Amino acid sequence: MTDTYVGAIDQGTTGTRFMVFDHGGQVVANAYEKHEQIYPEPGWVEHDPVEIWENTKSVVGRALDEADVEADQLAAIGITNQRETTLVWDHDSGDPVHNALVWQDRRTTDRVEELEAEDKVEWIRGKTGLEADAYFSATKVEWILDNADPLKLEASRPENLRDRAEAGELRMGTIDTWLISKLTGNVITDVTNASRTMLYDIHDMDWDDELLEEFGVPWSMLAEVRPSSDEDLYGHTDPDGFLGAEIPVAGALGDQQAALFGQTCFDEGDAKNTYGTGSFFLMNTGNEAVDSEHGLLTTVGFQRSGEPVQYALEGSIFITGAAIEWLEDVDLITNAAQTAELASSVDSTDGVYMVPAFTGLGAPHWDGRARGTIVGMTRGTRKEHIVRATLESIAYQTRDVAEAMEADSGIEMGQLRVDGGAVKNNFLCQLQADIIRTGIVRPEVDETTALGSAYAAGLAVGYWESVDELRDNWHVDREFTPEMDAARADRLYDRWGDAVERSLDWAREE
């Protein structure tokens, strides 16, 4: 199989990547392009779906060209994506009716509070495994149908969007569905992405009539839900399209489940944490959907063709890597690589804590009105202290989730597999081991999100025969073990809880 490969489209929050992997799971080609972050109002975050599609075509072509790989050498293509980000488009024309509402977007917080006031939170959690939160797709599609300006649409379509949705003219989906539709013409999603919409019953494994009615989403808008690794295929690329070849599209997973798959967390109790724009800590719970009593999400981990669903517990941390980007935005650093040097230049934060609740707090706090907070500053506080406090906030938030994970699962983790851009920072990895009090294991290939979707697609078409082959591909780059005194780590973490309290329920309208 030296002349064939598997491709992975990794459509993330800040940009789109295309990677090509060989049979050993090694990277053959890699191209990346950022897209615009649109902030129409405070707390609102949008992406242009057309820009995302154009960037997808661009990075696929560039990666293949740079690696001198022909499109027909791809045995399959897999897709992974920012999960809850939601868009609505015209089924006939394929044109979006509004920008995509990004998972970070908080404009529907009032709607979520209505659900809370109506005592519907437990009802929603019982069906979906999710907290009622603006994070998920249901309130986003509802907002688009109610608020997108029909005057911006074609003159021949003057009726409101709800009428058009009821007439079967519109489709909705997460970004995977949008890309699969563009690549194959088929409106398909996988079980992991469906499970993040707050419209899908993860026990019955189907769209839920009562939830669809609650949010006013007709069945005709919905994608067909398929396994994450699908031997029946989602479709093929158009041989007359931009690739010029008919390539099977055979796998899709939401980005965090893709990382779980790429980290070969195939067994109950296996856990990983991905450090990207946010951080997402998942533990495989096997064929059982474990209910959380500590603020975690119960979600679909993955499903292979003909096999039972594997579930996971998840701790969703909204802001980690984005906090480092904020340091750049306010000119405290010029690039992310500086953070390790600046943070290690001081022995501590000198009592400063940074709570990066820029878009609210996710697990285990679930406060959509929390906001970013820096506490403990004195006249002697320098940027080094703030940079270190920002890195420490990533470690503290991960410990919040780790403790909840152990309490819910009853499993004490021996080690945590990590991936994502931030894990290149050795200082952060060591700090994480110190604060969480467990071993941190970084693999050689840390782009495990793309790798996981490639594995899913490759398994579907027989490029890899079994998950044992994938386990053999996984290799450790470096392990980090706790070095900090445990009592000191506990003291620092306890004080973190005080800082979090000061960030809660801040964003109230006057």
Description:
Helix 11 packs across helix 12 and helix 12 crosses helix 13. The protein is built from 16 helices and 23 strands. The protein is an alpha+beta fold and 510 residues long. The relative contact order is 0.13. The mean pLDDT is 92. The chain starts with a strand and ends in a 7-residue tail after the last helix. Strand 1 and strand 2 form a beta hairpin. The protein is 34% helix and 22% strand. A seven-stranded mixed β-sheet has the order 17-18-16-15-21-22-23. The chain has a six-stranded mixed β-sheet with strand order 3-2-1-5-14-13, with helices on both faces. It has a two-stranded antiparallel ribbon with strand order 4-7.
Alpha-beta content class: alpha+beta
**Total beta strand runs:** 23
Helix content: 25-40%
Mean pLDDT: 92
Radius of gyration, CA atoms, in whole angstroms: 22 Å
- Strand % is 15-25%
Span between termini: 64 Å
User: Regions with pLDDT < 50 over 5+ consecutive residues?
Assistant: none
Assembly annotation: single chain
Strand order of the largest sheet: 17-18-16-15-21-22-23
Overall outline = globular
Please describe the biggest sheet, giving its number of strands, its sense, and whether it closes into a barrel.
Answer: 7 strands, mixed
Q: Helical stretch count? A: 16
Function: Key enzyme in the regulation of glycerol uptake and metabolism. Catalyzes the phosphorylation of glycerol to yield sn-glycerol 3-phosphate.
Binding site for ADP: 13, 17, 277, 321, 421, 425
GO molecular function: ATP binding; glycerol kinase activity
Catalytic activity: glycerol + ATP = sn-glycerol 3-phosphate + ADP + H(+)
